[in-house]
Amino acid sequence: MLSKEVINKLNEQVSKEMYASNLYLSMSSWCYNNRYEGAGQFLFEHAGQESDHARKLVTYLNETDSKVELQAIAKPNSEFKDLLDVFEQTYKHELEITQSINDLVSFMLEQKDYSTFNFLQWYVAEQHEEEALFRGIIDKIKLIGDKSNGLYLADQYIKSLSGK
Ligand code: OFO
């Protein structure tokens, strides 16, 4: 049985994952509208992964007979300067999520809630992968360059990462 505080914190994390999902969906649409189909596809899929992260938390709450209390999700940004700006914002957002997961992990240890601590290890590993993924995309956009040919190649590269 989880404590009330643990349940509240996990419910808050559900909202953060859902916000990330909506943010990436919004970014995906910006990409499609600006003819970056590869990045649009990649972010559309990534939005799905973020909602999976939220549902994994909901499943854990359900399995522990805890109350799921969904919260209002803030409106995500829908205006971006350029493709690099989109991915710099995804990376910044992932760093915020990592911080939030790290805070949760520390809290579970303090509370001696080892089951939830163990459950959260999946998120720790996931954040490590996602930070590397988004940082890699930023590096590639910078390396290939932001002139139109370069942006086409960057978009193709991002498309090749779909499903990762
Ligand atoms: Fe990309 O973050 Fe979820 O957990």
TrEMBL record:
Pfam families: Ferritin. Its main location: cytoplasm. GO terms for biological process: intracellular iron ion homeostasis; iron ion transport. Residues 1-145 form the Ferritin-like diiron domain. Fe cation binds at E17, E50, H53, E94, Q127. Its EC number is 1.16.3.2. It catalyses: 4 Fe(2+) + O2 + 6 H2O = 4 iron(III) oxide-hydroxide + 12 H(+). CDD domains: Nonheme_Ferritin. PANTHER family: BACTERIAL NON-HEME FERRITIN (PTHR11431:SF127), FERRITIN (PTHR11431). This is Ferritin. It comes from Helicobacter didelphidarum.
